[in-house]
Amino acid sequence: xxxxxxxxxxxxxxxxxxxxxxxxxxxxxxxxxxxxxxxxxxxxxxxxxxxxxxxxxxxxxxxxxxxxxxxxxxxxxxxxxxxxxxxxxxxxxxxxxxxxxxxxxxxxxxxxxxxxxxxxxxxxxxxxxxxxxxxxxxxxxxxxxxxxxxxxxxxxxxxxxxxxxxxxxxxxxxxxxxxxxx
Length: 182
Prior knowledge:
Layout: E1 2-4, H1 15-26, E2 30-32, H2 50-68, E3 72-77, H3 79-82, H4 95-106, E4 111-116, H5 132-141, E5 148-151, H6 160-178
Parallel strand pairs: 1-2, 1-5, 3-4, 3-5
Helix pairs in contact: 1-6, 2-4, 5-6
């Protein structure tokens, strides 16, 4: 189990985000340190521009190749990936997901499953069944076995205790189906 470090600029440092990272580390998730503050952002200050998206994909793929070292991976993400899957008119194109899969392939990850939902997280979008645990469970019960990388947590800061519990449940699910967490 791996995760992109949540308490990173431009959104951190922040004590709640640091707590989320610390909890994931205690659950034996390996943090991926990406230079998030170097990727250009949209005017909203929360999402990458298309150039920023490309730079994020390169840094992410490089970190996966160096740290996870595998030919397959499951990436559960929030709008860090999904934002650029949509046009301004709300039509889904899959551009960012497809581009991330292609970039990971260039780094030797030939089977990259990217499951990205805007606004999601460990508990965010639970009412819609789109939080990380539900999506992780779907993939693992569907036969996926291998590395899992979480890209998110920023949408969960308002529900700290629930989020920490959800992180534990995700780690338990990974361990149950994969036999190992990290």
